[in-house]
Every structure is written in structure tokens, then in C-alpha cells.
Amino acid sequence: MSSNTDLDNFVGLSALLTGFTAADLNPPLSPAPVAVEYLAYMQKPEAKVDPAILQRLLATYQAIAQLPPDQQAAQVQAQILTDPAMGPVARNIIRMWYLSIWYDGYASGPVTGFSSGTVVSSNAYTKGLAWDAMQAHPMGYSEMHYGYWADPPQPNDPADGNS
Amino acid sequence: MTEQTNYDVVIVGAGIAGGLAAYKLAQAGKRVLVLDGGPGVPPNRGDYMEKFYLSMAKTPESPYPDNDQLKNSERAVVLDIGSWQQRPPTGYLIQNGPLPFSSSYERVGGGTTWHWMGTSLRHLPNDFHTQTTYGHGVDWPYGYDDLQDWYCRAEWEIGIAADVEHQQYHGLKFWNPDDPTRQQPYQYPMPEIVQAYQDKVIERRLGQITVEGQQVGVSPTPQARNSIPFDDRRVCAGNTNCIPICPIQAKYDASIHLGKAANAGAEFWFQTVVYSVSVDTATGLVSGVNYKKYQEPNGPATETGTVTGTVYIMAAHAIETPKILLNSATNELPNGVANSSDQVGRNLMDHPTQLSWALMPEPIWPFRGPLSTSGIESLRDGDFRTEHAPFRMEIGNEGWNWAMNDPWGSVNDLVAGGEFGATLRSTLNSLFTRQFRFGSLVEQMPLSTNRIVPSREYTDNLGIPRPEISYDLDPYTRAGYAAARRVAARLFAQMGATDFTSPNLGSSSLFFYEDQPYILNGAGHVMGTYRMGTDPKQFVCDADQRSHDHANLFLLGSGVFPSVGTANPTLTIAATTLKAVDNIIRTVLR
Fold it and tell me: Which residues does B159 contact at the CB level (< 8 Å), separation at least 6?
């Protein structure tokens, strides 16, 4: 697995952090892969992510990925989320996947739904995972047809309601 | 100074009232000019959508130009409400309190219909004579039967989806407006919008229940959105985004009638800010409206001038219209124009909106479909109106989006609390799919001290005084707010839902009634301030919406409402506008 690219490691880590699969996060044939945008955004100066911490995060994940799948989440918790340097970055990655936002000041203070930040792109907005988690669609971006709202939605995940 | 003449009608404001008026007048062959302070309608809504997607706070104003991008046409925005006490003011409005006026509006072509919900209820028959029937509020100069035909015509102009059989409550009657015998049935132009799944769950869980002496029922809401193709516009795709912007214009907005008016020959001047009205003191007639034009959104005025016509129509909504009239004071008219009653700018009203939110015991899958498809109309009328204000309960279809800023709020709270991975996802699913809220729109009583005046201290980028507002809620309205909260809690209990409503005691919108705390929310309904009535000493305009003081000046919009009932105002704005303009065409300009 030493041939993993940064993107592979970012997507794999993101899957463990978000509860979605790597294929959900980076569909093989996606014309506008938001995973690429997110990783690129984190590497921009305005994201204020120390490149050394990002590399350590991806390397730590690569090691965790060698473990049996049922041990990986616990190791993400133990090695990454509780780490004073990597934990805040990892939590901001979760927020970014769910809400399409990179929050400022994530390392220094508490982040709330009213904190300042940047919507990474309009493409990212339409792919926020919060909307999938609620079995809906982004507000302002429906690909459904008239009247769909009269019936329960399809489950996106075995844990979802109506599954 | 330049002067433009020869218009039959000069209209100030290119929102739904000005747009409908311009269309009907131009269609009748009149030479019409419409002035609006903001930019015109963009060629497509893509730029507005992009700005919405990239906005951190998806407020009603978020798709449209920010105040610092458009200083010559600033307006009230909801993000300024929390800091209303600060001086110098952080926003466009100067708020004196004791409560903040909490509704916003747009100053762009098409006006506030860009971000209206589309809810198109009629006022109830009793809403037109609340003083006579209940001893509260102010009677209209006419009754429901006098407006019925105009409601029908407005519903066909705008395009309302509803079934008459579900709207016949509290004495509402419908008949074909072209039938003088009032016997022939009426049909809305489109079948009603399919109700959301959650509405059916709520109806089932409520079962038979009576509160405040009224049996509670869930009614499909008449809505200005397409259930079938109508007026060359598409069918609603359930974007759940009526506020702040419908991506596909399945929801009506006034840009429709601006286009129709232009096609019928009306002339439009955008980026033209009217700041005063001139009166010929010899005749008492309005002799012109005075404007400043600009080229750059934040630049200086590039032209100052006056336009003249035969008839003048103010349609700049219930804050800007009184601001302009009061800013027109002269030695001869020290109270301003149309203001011998001293009532211009007074009796500013909203529908203060009580939010109650809960978790349902089963998934109801909100955040799907239009933002609201049903409501509880049962408490809009009843004998209790002698004791407290009535209210309509909007059934929100966006979970805790308004109430708790979700999904942003809960995702951040859970992540900060250490949740991640599959647990985070399933917790969010369980939470978001069961979220529910009522938004109860309470009828606000008029208070003459609830007032907008042009500021003596603060001006806008063009040197025009900004609106300064004093605002409070009277005890009868507060009692209605408390009743709305009480009823919501009762209905949650009936449905087996867990009530999570909790007023933020640190909010600058906090108020009390009988020692209980409540948070004031605005409905976006700006009403009162130039009310109509027969007595020139008490009212600004007559039942034809003609100024009692100046025979060629007419006032449109929700500013003319003597009292405001519980219906969202836009449909009644449209109906009263069509009625007033028909009279202008038949008797004033014939």
C-alpha cells in the first residue's frame, strides 16, 4: 500500500471520519470529484493547515489502513482525534465533508454553526454529506421531480430510517 | 436637474404592486414609467444561485447583492437584527426599539417576492372587521365580499395552486368573479400542491383534538408555485429553497409582471432612487417625484431630476414609501406629503412568528419539497379573539433549519462533542429525519408609536435619510404569541413529539409576557404605515387607495392594510392593487 497517493489516503481517512464509504466520497467516474477540491483547498495557504501536520495525518491513516477493518475506527479515535495537532484538523475535515465549509479558527476555539469559514465551492455545496445523512437533497439543489415529497425517501445507508 | 414629462402614470417601486400596476396600466394603453432604486432583473438567476451556494449564512438576503456591494440601494437584512442596539448602527435600519423590527426586504427589480415563501392565503371575512366583532384592531373600509373577485383575479395573475374544497374554513366563500349572482363556482388556476409526507403523519398523530375552543385540522396551503406548467413556467421540483430563492422560478416572483409590463409598453428606470415627492400647493396635486440616478452601485449620483405625470403611484413597500413621503416635508407641508393625518409611517406591523420545535417519535423526512405545504388554520379565527391575537401555524418542511440553523448547527455540535464515523452519520440521520417545527404567525395590533421616520442623523450613500424605526408588541399581540406557544406545546404532546423549544435568554430579541420569556421573530411581512380608511383624520388614503390629501396620488402595497389578519400579505397586496388600479383606469385616467 506504499503506492497510496495523498488523495487515496485523504479519501480513506475521510471515509472513517464521516461514516461514508470511499466510493461514496470519491465515485470512480465523477466528473467533478469534490475530494480533489477538498484536499487541494487544505493545501492552500488560506486554509492555514500546517503541511507537516497534514502529511502526518495522511501517514497515520496509511498505517491504520493496514489494520483489520473492525479496528480502524478505534485507532482513528486513539491516534488522530485525540492528538492535539491532528485532532482539530480531522474534525474540520468532517465538517468540510458534511457542510462543504472549511471553518476558520478550527484549531484555536470552538466551532459552531455560526462560525466564520469558507464554502469551498458551489460544486462542493451540492455534495455536502449532511443532505445525504438526512435522506434529502441540498436546499436549492433538487434533482427530483414534482411530488417526490409525498412519499418516504429511499434509504442511503443500512442505518437510515425506512431501510 | 432634468425634467421628464408626459407620463400618464409614474410608479415608484418595481415589486409586485408596482409590477402588477404597470402591467395593467400599460395594457390599458397608458404611458407608464416605473422607477426603482435597485438594479434590474438579471438575465438569468445563475449569479444569484452561485452567491447563495457560496454564502456561509443562507439568509433570505443571501443570493442578492450585499449592502456593501450596493450601497446606493441598501436594505434591511436579518443578520443585522442581533446588533440592533449598537450605535453607530451596523445595518441600514436605525432601530430605537424597545424591540427590533425583525423583517427584511429587497430593493432590486422584482422586490421582496424574490424571497417570499409563496403562501397565498386570503384574509378571513372576520379579519375585515375585527374592531366591530372582537373589539380589537381596526376595521377595513370594505369587507371580504368586496375583495373576493379581486382575490380570484390576483390568484390567476400570480398563479396559485389550491383546491377550493380545502379552503372553505372560517366563513371563506369562493365564487366566479365574472358572475354577478355569486352562484357559479370558482377554481384556482392550478390543482393544490401535493402535501409533504410529514403533513400526513402530523394529521394522523393529531387525530381529533380541540384547543382554544377550535377543532384543529391540517389544511393544504394555497401556494404561488406551479403544480402544473403555468404561464410558461416550470413545475415545482421541491428544491426546499423558496426562501431565499427558487432555482427554477416554479415559484412566482414579480419579475414575471415586470416583463409583462415592459412587453405592454411600460418604461423602467432602474438604479433610480426616489427621495421625495413635490406638491403644487395651489392645486394640492402632486407635481413630480424627485430622484437620484447612479451608474456604479457604490458610486455617486450621476443625475438628479424630477419626473412628472398625471397620476402618481407609490409602491415602494411599507418602510421606503413612508420614508419618501415624510422626507418630502416643506414649509407648506411641514408633516410631509399625504400626511395631514400625521399617520404616515405609524402603525408599522409584522406577523411576529413564534417558533416551536420538536423531535417526532418516527421519521417524517423533512427538508424535502417546498418549504411548507400545509398549515393549521384553525386558530386564525374564533371567540378567543376578544382575549388574544389569532395566529396561523405554518407547518415547516425544513426541520430545525430556521429554529436551530440546521444542518449546520447539529453537525457542528456533534463533531465538537467528539462524534465521528458511522455513529455520527446514524445520529444525524435519526435527528434530521425527525425534526419538526411550527411557525405561528400572530396578528399584530397597530400601535401609533410603532413608527418609521426618516433619520435626522443617518443618511445613505446618496445622502438620503435612512429609515429610523420604533417598534414594540402590545399586550394583546403578546397574549397571542403566548397562546401560540401554549398550543404548539399541546399539539407536540398530542403527537408524542419531544418539545425542544427553548428561548435564548441572551438574545436581543427577547421579550416577556406574564413573566414567561419569548423570542421575537419576523415573518418578512412589512405592513401598515399608510393605512386606508374613510376618515381623513385617521387614515392616509381612502378605500380606493387614493391619498386623502392629494387627488392624483395613490398608495399600493401592504402599507394600506388597516389591520393585518393572519394571512401572508402578498396575495392581498396583489388583490388590493388590482382593485385600486382598475378604479384608476376606469375613473381617474379615462
Answer: B189, B190, B224, B226, B230, B231, B233, B252
